[in-house]
Amino acid sequence: MVLALAQDAAVAEHEPALVDRIVAVVGDRLVLASDVAIENEIGARDVYTVAALAERRKDASRWLVDMAIVRALAGDVRVYEPTRQDVADALDRFAATFGDAASYRGFLDRSGLSQERLQSLLTTRLVVERYIQRNVGLGLTDDELGERYDAWIAERRQQVAIREIAERSE
Fold it and tell me: What pTM was computed for the model?
């Protein structure tokens, strides 16, 4: 298929275009530049439920690496899975931050997201938060959770192969 496209004169006339860029590889999971852009948008709209992690989410690239680690640890354990209502509530909170349906649709279009894909992204974030709350900070204050999380995730980062890929300057 690739060879056939390369031989097509119409395709050969066009310059190659960068579709996305790998920012990091965490174990066997990729963190893409498009993921960082979407996370910046989600983070700016504050739809997360664990306020103690707000500072950690400001560096979207680092936060996505952390999320990949935590999501892998959480696996498919049902105790971390949010209910359909939890996901619907998160989606409603997120959509409401746009003020109107047209702005929300514009975000989905700009980001190349479907409603289902956004639900999946929000579900992942809820799983990560639940895992962190249950395994790092059950019953802690926000400050205590933030401090304990920093030490906890530093240990986990040492146990996982992480390759962060710097953007090349041309």
Answer: 0.82
